[in-house]
């Protein structure tokens, strides 16, 4: 199963240098995971989410920064 999520970079995602703050990439990945689970596992994405309704644990995550991203650009997250 593969999932693709498009995310538009907001002004508030950027640092004073004008590019996306590195911590926000992990938020983008989180948004993509929610879309993935909603589409493929029919799991709840609103209300109470606990181990009985969402039995997944994120054990590891990493990000390699290849080039800067700026406000109003679209990113595509592939899972």
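^ Assign residues to that structure.
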């Amino acid at each position: 199963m593969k999932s693709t999520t498009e995310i538009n970079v907001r002004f508030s995602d950027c640092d004073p240098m004008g590019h996306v703050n590195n911590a926000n990439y992990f938020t983008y990945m989180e948004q993509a995971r929610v879309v993935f689970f909603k589409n493929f596992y029919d799991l709840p994405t609103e209300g109470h989410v606990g181990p009985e309704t969402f039995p997944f644990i994120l054990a590891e995550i990493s990000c390699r920064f290849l080039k800067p991203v700026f406000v109003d650009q679209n990113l595509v997250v592939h899972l």
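The first strand starts at residue 4 and ends at 8.
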